[in-house]
Design goal:
This protein is of the alpha/beta class. Helix content is about 45%, strand content about 20%. The chain has a ten-stranded mixed β-sheet, with helices on both faces. The mean pLDDT is about 95. The structure holds GDP-alpha-D-glucose.
């Protein structure tokens, strides 16, 4: 198992005198103000969850959009703040966006065009020319902030690690001004097959944005292959299958799979602490969960996560196996996200309607089958819910990786629990001891609910032990070290 300390050693050895800058849309800490009091929030979302422990271990600068209503109040004159506040480890540099920029770049192009285009969840992407222009403008703003760091710090050896689909053009803008800056890009969501991607009106510029990087990472080999095939169809470039790289106009870009992960040890240790155990017992009482078999869903509310499918399957399960009524409970935690977008308003209403219908249909005076929490849940409560849950249910229609599966497994320090996992998640490739479902196959899903409840304890324990070993070995530090080692092999010497 790679530890934080070992990652630090890898970084010191391999990065040498390179300075690391991470860039993402979402910031890892958000400052908000309510009734005169400033609070710090850790937002939900996979990219931030994964990268914060890496940055804590290796230091450096993280540039991101400052989105909290008190963010400006706490930064210095260069828009910087050291984080985490209680134990500062790295610098967060905030970048400000106007409402128009946020609308066009974030809600518009990133989340109404690129997100549905990359996930095969049958939500139609919307391509607006003005969103695309705003997307380019904001990507340029991020690139300028990086170039400014270079000038200010007088550091001529920079390694920029760009995150996710919001920032596909950043490397191109950086390299135009400063080709010596090393750019690595990690795409946190799936890359679809070429047939799906070919409808995008801005496809050539998007691909050129990717290829300006020195290294591009996806979660799994399948996404890399889809990307390489897309490049072959859409632009003139040479694909080197031996090296898994693409050469365009003399510049080589390596394409690699790096399955992202979580801080296994940190989660496992915290989950076994008295604090989390006590909180779990409090929740058990508060929600009347004593003697219940608990299923848990924990997702940002998103149409890719298959939340309606799991509610419908649970409803059918209660229809088909009524002997389980009053014995089981489904808890769905769902932080609302991207609510200005119509497709998200629609999925929210659909989930609300389904929960009400299913609860109305099956509930008794003592029991309701589904508990739905729509509010943002503090991190420690998420761990308490993992601790309570006999089964985690992940039914994504399509998902780059899915960190909830990995967090749940990491938290099961006593080898209890079971995982129902969609075969359309990136994590399904690694987590072979999970119980797989196709979320579109409701009849099969119903049987899986029953099968998992009736699975023998020693079989559950056997599976969980293997799952935990997999994540323990392939933790988040291992992921970061792999990316850094890959870069260092080709460029740093
Ligand atoms: C993208 C890709 C890929 C959720 N609700 C709350 C909350 N969460 C946390 C979970 C988990 C994270 O958010 C969600 O991570 P996922 O990986 O499951 O999903 P996405 O946000 O869609 O992430 C995904 C990931 O990037 C990383 O590359 O795995 O495929 O789509 O950490 O625990 N956290 C808190 N309150 C909540 O209410 N505190």
């Amino acid at each position: 198992m790679m530890t934080k300390e070992e990652l630090k050693q890898v970084i010191n050895k391999e990065l040498g005198n390179y300075k690391m800058i991470v860039v993402s849309n979402r910031e890892p800490y958000i400052h908000t103000q309510e009734a005169g009091k400033i609070k710090v929030l850790r937002p939900s979302g996979g990219a931030v969850t994964a990268l914060d422990p890496v940055m804590r271990a290796c230091g450096g600068i993280w540039i991101a959009h400052g989105s909290g209503n008190a963010d400006r109040k706490v930064v210095d004159k260069d828009d910087r703040i050291r984080v985490p506040t209680e134990d500062p480890r790295y610098t967060l540099r905030r970048l400000w966006l106007s409402k128009d920029e946020e609308r066009g770049y974030y809600y518009g192009f990133s989340n109404e065009a690129l997100w549905p285009l990359s996930h095969i969840a049958y939500t139609r992407p919307i391509f607006r020319e003005k969103d695309w222009q705003m997307y380019k403008q904001v990507n340029k703003k991020f690139a300028d902030a990086i170039l400014e760091e270079k000038t200010k710090s007088n550091h001529d050896k920079l390694l920029v690690w760009i995150q996710d689909y919001h920032l596909v053009l950043v490397a191109k803008y950086i390299k135009e001004k400063s080709p010596d800056i090393i750019c690595a890009y990690f795409w946190h969501i799936p890359w679809p097959n070429p047939e799906v991607f070919r409808i995008c009106p801005f496809k050539k510029e998007i691909i050129e944005g990717f290829l300006a990087n020195d290294l591009v990472g996806f979660h799994i080999r399948y996404h890399c292959d889809n990307f390489i095939e897309t490049v072959e169809r859409e632009v003139e470039a040479k694909v080197d299958r031996e090296r898994n790289s693409i050469i365009k106009e003399g510049h080589e870009c390596l394409i690699r799979a790096f399955p992202i992960s979580v801080d296994f040890k940190d989660i496992s240790d915290l989950a076994s602490s008295d604090k989390i155990k006590d909180r779990a017992e409090e929740l058990r009482k508060e929600l009347s969960l004593e003697d219940k078999i608990i299923f848990l869903g924990c997702d940002r509310i998103d149409y890719t996560k298959g939340i309606p499918e799991r509610i419908i399957a649970f409803d059918r399960f209660l229809d088909k196996y009524p002997e389980y009524k009053e014995k089981v409970v489904f808890i769905q935690i769902g932080a609302i996200s991207r609510i200005l977008i119509q497709a998200y308003k629609d999925i929210n209403s659909e989930i609300n309607r389904l929960v009400e219908e299913v609860n109305w249909k099956h509930s008794t005076s003592e029991w309701a089958p589904i508990i739905f929490s729509k509010r943002f849940v503090p991190y420690e409560d998420i761990l308490a819910f993992y601790s309570l849950a006999d089964v985690i249910v992940i039914s994504s229609l399509h998902d780059g990786m899915n960190l909830v599966a990995k967090e749940y497994i990491s938290s099961k320090f006593d080898n209890s629990g079971a995982v129902i996992l969609s075969q359309f998640t990136g994590s399904a490739r690694e987590l072979q001891e999970a119980v797989f479902i196709n979320p579109y196959n409701i009849a099969e899903f119903v049987e899986v609910f029953k099968g998992v409840i009736e699975m023998k304890d020693d079989e559950k324990e056997r599976r969980m032990k293997i799952l935990r070993e997999i994540i323990k070995e392939n933790n988040i530090y291992h992921w970061a070290a792999k990316v850094i080692l890959e870069l260092s092999k080709f460029y740093l010497y």
